[in-house]
Amino acid sequence: MTPQTFCRSFVVVLILSAVAFGFPRAAQAQAAAQVSMAAQVETPAADAVKTDSGLVYKITAPGRGSVHPTVNDLVKVVTLFWTKESVESKPSSMSTPTQPILMGAIIAPGLREALALMTTGQRMRLWLPEKLAFAGAAGKPKGPLMVDVMLLDIIAPPATPSDVAAAPADAQKTKSGLAYKILKPGTGTVHPKSNSTVTVHYTGWTTDGKIIDSSVIKGQPLNISLDGEVIKGWSEGLRLMVVGESRRFWIPGRLAYDGSDLKDVPRGMLVFDIELIAIDGK
């Protein structure tokens, strides 16, 4: 990315994010007023590359290595984006650099596609038509976007179990249809109640092996109430456990998100590995 692509007013933003993006102060100071950032949203660079989906991108800084993130990986990224109505010095962001994002959970298809092409440390400028941006999602900016993105890190997920497609024959099953196997016995004797708050580590997959989410990768256990904050399969399964125990659950769709009004949630049977760390803080 050359300094000439940035307008003078954007220098303030670049100074604030210089560490993340690595732009030298001298280059920032030399940035001259050019075509506004908002005006460039629908005007890709002449040397940009266009994919079959309609994504247009230009590599503005090289990356390291040859590893590209996959749909099951988490990524740390820095993003700035503009719409046609953006205020010059106030671009928006799709990410927090310190918070890993699951590739499969990124809402903008064009950003997912671009990140899959990138390696750690690489920077790109993207031009996303609306269908590859937020696609009319409620509460999100409308129309096309121009995005500056830097891939900071790729975090590999836990290995997908070999039995996610269906519960094995030796799994136990409750009357509701919830199946489970004990992976590690616990040390406690008390079970959570229906209104307990539990601390857990978890990783979840769809039956085709796609990771849903993982506190293990994020390095931060989840504190959550069993009273209405979790799916039925979690509430039932966790009440069977004791502190220190780990179980694998095969949760039928009717005990997960089937029938839910929520959008962008996985349907059908889900598989979770859950470790119960504490019950009501104990």
Explained architecture:
- The protein is α+β, with helices and mostly antiparallel strands and 282 residues long.
- It has 2 domains: 38-155, Chitinase A, domain 3, CATH 3.10.50; 172-279, Chitinase A, domain 3 (Roll).
- It contains 6 helices and 13 strands.
- The chain has helices at residues 11-16, 18-21, 25-29, 109-117, 215-218, 232-238, and strands spanning 49-50, 56-61, 74-82, 101-102, 123-128, 145-155, 172-173, 179-184, 197-206, 211-214, 222-225, 246-251, 270-279.
- Strands 7, 8, 9, 10, 11, 12 and 13 form a 7-stranded antiparallel sheet that branches. A 6-stranded antiparallel sheet has the order 1-2-5-6-3-4, with helices on one face.
- Strand 9 and strand 10 (211-214) form a beta hairpin.
- The chain is elongated.
- The termini are far apart.
- The relative contact order is 0.13.
- The model is unreliable at 1-34 (pLDDT under 50).
State the helicity in percent bands. Answer: 10-25%
Low-confidence stretches are: 1-34
Instruction: Tell me what the CATH architecture of the largest domain is.
Output: Roll
- The mean pLDDT is 86
So what's the oligomer here?
single chain
Globally, the shape reads elongated
Termini distance? 52 Å
**How many distinct domains?**
2
Amount of beta strand: 25-35%
Element order, helices and strands? HHHEEEEHEEEEEEHEHEE
Which structural category do the helix and sheet elements fall into?
A: alpha+beta
Largest sheet: 7 strands, antiparallel
For the secondary structure, the number of strands is 13
